[in-house]
Amino acid sequence: MKHAIHLASLAAAAFLGGGVFVNAAPADATRPNIVFIFADDWGWGDLSCHGHPWVKTPNLDRLASEGTDFQQFNVLNPVCSPSRAAVMTGHYPARHSVHQHFAAPEQNHQRGMPDWLDPKAPMLPRFLQQAGYRTGHFGKWHLTNRDTQGAPKAEAYGYDEAAVFNGGAGWDSADLHATAANTTAFIKANKDKPFFINAWIHESHTPHVPTEESMAMWKHLDEQKQIYAAVITDGDNVVGAILEALKAEGVADNTVVMFSSDNGPEHTAPKAGPKKHDVDANVTGYDTYYSIGSTDGMRGRKRSLFEGGVRVPFIVRWPGHTPAGAQNTTTVFTAVDLLPTLCAAAGVALPASYHGDGENLLDAFNGKATARTRPIFWEWLGTKAEPDYWPRLAVRDGDWKLVMTGDAQRAELHHLNEDRAEAADVAKDHPDIVARLSKMALEWKATLPTQPNPECLSTQKIEAAPGPKKTAAKGSGVTPEVRAKALERWDTNKDGVLILDEYKAGLKGQDNLDARFKNFDKNSDGKLTRAEFVGPAAK
Fold first, then answer.
1. Region 484-496 average pLDDT
2. Which end of the chain is more exposed for a tag (fewer CB within 10 A), N or C?
């Protein structure tokens, strides 16, 4: 087994091209600065320039009016960590065994995941850093987990400076509202040299922690809309602050500014619960009842491989290059295309050993008619609920998109140019296309690793959240007392039992939750009593 792992590691190293330095580009003052503002759970429809009826995003609208709105942009996973890993590496995240969000090590290992993104993998910031760019990462991280000891810090990935939240155990944690200030300070300090910044903002992830100023702006709305509109306003204000900083420092005309989101909008809870505490950022805010983000009619949301979960906003401003006020509705752009495209924009030659999954679509940035030529693949191993979360694999080739189970026994086919909402399954009308795309998806899946890189696993055991597969047996770490505390937290209406929605909210992001709930629900009444969930011995 060790020998097999070693061979797999060598093969992965050949694919990744890790450790190969990029030849530094000439110190040319015309090389563009690059700023990537990456939002969290911000739906495609959550912009006023995308037609939202009551949310207002004047700064994003300004960005769109001064740049190009790419309306067929996809992330490569419907949740945070793998989506971000794709941006960093230019690889499908499953190539690094990053299938879901990074959780505590025990849960990662149950999922067949590492505990952090491999720092030896090729990295966009490292390629730019080696070419003479100053690099900074400000805001969310989540390429590891707060319960993980020994995770590599940001500098291991190619950053000169970083101030993050959702980092590893023992990391200094930045305030989630400090992303703009840290970003603008970095711009001011590095205005005389090319720079690259990842500004990964918290909005509109839960807990919602709107500022008083933004809440006051939307006091005429009902509370649910007020809180969400205020959160969107706070995120939009970060965009505005960054744009103003670039202008103030005289570098706006030579900076590529991009805005996008890591996945579609979060689900909306049926009723309000108590305020939720985020230990990563040490803040308390509102729960998912206030997550009323918009997909603009696309099917699915966060955790779904349908378009509502993976098609997100993507706006690019690059004065003198990217057409202003344009909408690109034809170029299919993905997160793995960012690494080769941005390196091309910066004049950075990628090493010959780098074999990415993306394409250089710089021509699209420059306003030219550009078509992505390679198929796109997705894998999802999390939530399996009906009606929109059951697909495990998806492939898009041209305008055809197939979603399917892992064994290809169930599939839906959609022609996205005619059916953006994925409302009409035309699989029965095109069995040849279904067969071709199914074969492509299964062959792609066969190239993926079956276990994570052992160098990216924490050796310290961390107690995981309670679940039906855990008992109070020796070494499990989940006692009746732990479950009792979980029951108190998750029982939002304080009626002494858990319904499925409460259980799912408490274990948000974990897989097989419907089945796990049924395992506890011995009498199948749709409710978990204290005796069923905690056990008779707990008090």
1. 80
2. N
| Overall domain count for the chain | 3
Query: What is the token pair recorded at 502?
Result: 């409460």
Rg (CA), the chain: 23
pLDDT band at 520 (very low <50, low <70, confident <90, very high): confident
Domain boundary, last residue among 334, 365, 396: 365
Q: Are residues 244 and 359 in the same domain?
A: yes
Q: Does residue 451 form part of some domain?
A: no
Average pLDDT over residues 174-181: 95
The verdict on 50 and 84 lying in the same domain is yes
Burial per residue of 145-184, b for 16 or more beta-carbon CB atoms within 10 angstroms, e otherwise: bbbbeebbbbeebbbbbbbbbbbbbebebbebbebbbbbb
Element (H, E) at 183: helix 179-189
Work out the burial of residue 404: count CB atoms within 10 Å of its CB; fewer than 13 is exposed, 13-18 middle, 19 or more buried: buried
- Cβ-in-10-Å burial (0-12, 13-18, 19+) of 524 comes to exposed
Q: Locate tokens 């805010």: which residue? A: 285
CB under 8 Å to 8, separation ≥6 — which residues? 449, 451
Q: Average pLDDT, whole number, for the chain?
A: 89
As beta bridge partners, residue 73 has 333
Amino acid at 388: D
Share of the chain above pLDDT 70, in %: 88
pLDDT, mean of residues 75-94: 98
Range of the structural domain that residue 424 is part of = 376-445
Gap between the Cα atoms of 346 and 365, Å rounded? 13
